[in-house]
Amino acid sequence: MSRFSARARVLAVAASTSLVISGFVAVSAPAQSATPQAGGILTMLEHEPRLDHLDPTRIYTGRDLAFMNAFHTRTLVAYNPVPGEAGAGIVPDLATNTGIPSNQAKVWKFTLRPGTKFEDGTPITCEHVRYGVSRVFAQDVLPGGPTYLITWLDIPKDADGNSIYTGPYKNTPAGVKAFNKAVACSKDNRTITFTLNKSIADFNYLATYGVISPVQKSKDTGDKYDLNPQSTGPYKIVENSDTQLKMVRNKYWSKASDPVRTPYPDEVVILYGMDEEVIDQLMLEDTIPTAINFGGPLPTNRDKFFKDDKFKNRRMNNSDPYARYYAFNLKKMPCLEVRAAMYYAWPIKALLDYAGGPDYAGSYATGAISPLV
Asked: What confidence tens digit (pLDDT) does each residue in 151-196 have?
């Protein structure tokens, strides 16, 4: 299994962009028609005050990747938007292929699809993708996202083991030269080539992450780009406030250039900071017919959704690829006997029951890595 597939696949978004799986339990509004209809507002009810990040360079959680990649940010390749095992595979998105490896998978080439544009109508080119890639190296400005590229691209390291390229905001001629060699654009500005320092057979799975997506240098505002990143997908951001994130259709997006997405709603809205009990009651009473619980029901309400057949086509309960554990400061606990006592006394069953029990919270892990991974 790819090192990326488990993380992103479990939280993938349907091709119709009408459903988001968020966490291990999710509930959606009832289907009004067997055939999807265009129009209306898709409303997502969220307890948290905001998404962690909107800047594609900084998005890392599976849920936020799934949401932004479905509605806003296109990547070179995407997960196949079909159910079942086939959905773990990847298909071309901004690229015309899923990547062509050479030199024992140390070199990867992607050719961009014609007709793709930013929300202001600017055609997307290789230089935009390369600039987007360059931003991950500015960890002092844009922390929080995946950093595989810093490790894998064939760029020399300094005496401390850090990349000599430090991103687009401050750099040296030697660093820029090394980066442009490792991430190269063809003369027609349509093919991007990544040169790695070792063989990475599933490098193309990293291309499903926003860290390899186009960004216009002229629109880059550093850490403030997180507030209003430019869209390359079917929706663009028109409001990002303390109460909601609102997206409307991007008129420069074209279905003809996007084989992955079929955007039905006219608007997509996330309502932030909602009380979890209020969210559950809105869903149970069907107060907002086109709503989705962006998190999941409270433990006290899960049986109401999962023991009632009227919700059977609106609910899902999936295992995620994570293992949750408690870490102690062992410097404060040097005695092995005390550590052993803590281990044997730790109330693992009570904690699992508190989280919802095995039906909703999963089973005990045998280590720090989920069995799904």
From this structure: 999 999 999 999 999 999 999 999 999 999 999 999 999 999 999 9
* Residue type present at position 136: V
**C-beta neighbour count of 76 within 10 angstroms:** 28
Instruction: Provide the token pair at 169.
Output: 């905001």
End-to-end Cα distance, the chain: 8
* CATH number listed for the domain at residues 5-257: 3.40.190.10
Beta strands in 6-89 (DSSP E): 25-27, 41-45, 77-79
Does residue 283 sit in helix, strand or coil?
helix
For the chain, which residues make up each domain, given as ranges?
5-257, 330-361
What is the signed CA dihedral for 212, 214, 217, 222, rounded to 10 degrees?
-50
Neighbours of 258 (CB within 10 A): 20
Entry pTM? 0.85
CA distance 244 to 267: 12
E-strand spans in 93-243? Answer: 100-102, 107-111, 183-185, 191-195, 235-240
Q: Judge contact between 297 and 49, C-beta under 8 A.
A: no
DSSP conformation letters of 75-93: -SEEE--SSSGGGGSEEES
